[in-house]
Amino acid sequence: MTRGLGARSAVLKLAMAALAAATAAATGVSAQPTPPPLPDRPLPDADVPVARPAQPLPSILAILAHPDDEITIAPVLARAAREGSEVTLVFATSGDAGPGVSGMEPGEKLAALREDEARCSAFALGVGEPIFWQLGDGQLSTMARAPDSPARDLAERIASIIAIQQPGVIMTWGPDGGYGHADHRMVSNAVTQVVQAMGHDRPDLLYAALPSGEETTIPGFENWATVDPSLVTDRLRYEMADLDAARAAIDCHASQFPESARTMLPYLLHRNIWRGSVFFRLALPRFELAH
Q: Reading across the β-sheet that carries 277-282, which strands appear in turn?
């Protein structure tokens, strides 16, 4: 195991084994063997070199819709945690309506399993216990104007956690929701609504971005929304250790992806899209202090 998992590797293997057993118990189907770790030799980095930055990333608050959404930015979360930055991972829902490949019925048991998968993923990335708001998978946009709607609850929770955590950066979905998912769009909308009302001390708000021209390089990404490369403002580098951690995090989501996908996805993302950097678009202008 490369140093991306470091001293956590043995504990992570036990955690993943326990999660596989839980998946098998919940679904009634024996879990597939865990895919092998990334090889010790570096993966090719295409035309983008990967170098350790001189300064660590600021504290990060990642607010997402469902367990497994963190995959899209996983290497950056791993890098920030590895360099000692505070990283907080929040899921608005627990994915209780998304059985993926598990064969489970939507509901509380599925939600509990997906929360466990998210914990496994967070541990692999070196991040602390995720926060689960359990607002209802597929329900975030329901009656959004109503005083007691999930959307209003979501915005209030976002404002509260920003006040508590005071992050340097907030990461979330762009207004496109990646591939148009209504929950993704609503999370992006609610986070933006809260941050745009803040003053000069507001954190940077970064939308995960897929640069145009990359969308057809991986099967399943053909219908993802893209961003013109001229609008990509932040290209956050990662090292191979961080890709190792992302690989282990993806493998935690056994209810959502078959073994073949969990094995190949990190390689494909690294070689065809990321190439050593995860891309973001700055949602709101950065304040510049006058000299």
A: 131-132, 87-91, 60-64, 169-172, 204-208, 277-282, 234-237
